[in-house]
Amino acid sequence: MRSAGFLFDVSMTGPSEPRPPAASGERAARDVPGGPVREALQAAGYTGAARVGGAWAVRAPDGAACALQVLRRAELGPAVDERVARLRTVEHAHVARVATVVEAGGELAVVLRGGTGTPLRDVLARRGALRAGEVVTIVTGVGHALGALHAAGLAQGGVTADRVVVDDDGRCHLQPSVAPPGTGASPAADVRALAGLARDAVADGTDAADGPATDPAHVPDAGDAAAVAALLGILDASARGDGTHGATTAEELANVVARTVAAEPVSVPDLAALAAVAMGRSAGAADGSAPSAADGRPVTGVVRRPVSQAPRRRVIPPRTADPLEDTLVRARALAAPEGPSEPEGRRARAAARLRRRRTRTAVLAGAVAGLVVVAVALAVLRPWTSGQPAEAAPSASAPAAASHPAPTDATLERDRPELAARELTQRRGAMLAGATAEDAVTVHGSPARAADDALAAQLARRGTIVTAPRVDVAAARLVTSDADAATVDVRYTIGAYTLRAKDGATTAVPAAAERTDRLELAWTDHGWRVRSVAGD
Asked: What domain count does the chain have?
């Protein structure tokens, strides 16, 4: 079992965007932070773990979202210490800076502050191509960031879409690689890599031409075909290392591109579309070949948009999805219904629920080995188990369904927590559609609830309607139990469901394979509730 405590993996790629071979330094990076280094980070006040592009993420003691890179000390040697020391000297608005370094259990954990957002890899996986002005934003932001690294005597050693993130304002930032890059890394190679990444991201349909815009005082918009052609020419030449028509330094590339086409913010896709990216893993590449561990997570499901709004669309066929490895959504607590007694009360409550479903935005938050978030614009974090006793986090007032459950409610069986675990797992599916309040599933003040509340603040601006999937529990095995806490392994499957965005686009997410999660339960005034989760 790996400690998930609401982990989230968004290291994804599209089927037409294979992940490049890892440099020697990247191979030293851990896929999952080890126990000793997690404990050291927690002791330093950091909580949460979320996979964001090429780095994990944590939440700082002051609540700020930070990137986290965890490396194996034995595979790096003293070179990593010098690189970290140099990274500490880099201060740039578009570069995540080193904030904290922790070493424990043979691992080195480096916390990078700033530069969090939606991985560019996810944006490209969903959209396929970007407007020329958006590409200019990428090149200028990342180009100046690389210039700051190069000035400090550092090379990135691989400018890839999973090391570039897009913030809420559509600006791009670089998450520098902490691991020393492999042989062949150099500032010139970084420039070629950035130019190649940008060139591949530009929407097709425009022929390239060599040379920048002739008038540096005039910056055409992205609708100027000649200017776009000039931009593509610069990127092509720079990617080839052609110093005559292209740029040879990162700063030069950023400046030349900025004079060619007017920059515009990078548009992040609707959360429903990104949810398909976040929650699915391809069972095979687009050509049918078996995926490798580095293939990432391509878009899952069929994306349908109204034809009038999407004359150009990129549809990815359905694929076998990974399970949504824990709670699926953060639902708003429902007020206790008021009305006459049965049978009138029953009809009134049903009508009220129907009205709420039609008007309330269901905020999506799935999990990979924990509470899956659609997570994108910021590195939304899922705290690890904090170790605080459950009774230290009193439960908030729950809605009527949670405060006064029926006598058959399995969560009230104090001596049968395995039955409660079954019930709580099934309730998670209802949370997706807002039919069940979070108080009916998680402990107030717990790592699960804290992460859920933090996510809601980031996602409430966008509307995504979700149909609740069917959750089938195959088995629940009691691991440990006492009067106030229990550990239960739950084996279950999640059925297919649909996401609908505000613009009418729908994304069909296929059923997931069976999986097992370890639920840490706490006894509350309302029965057993989930405090934290670990997934296999």
From this structure: 2
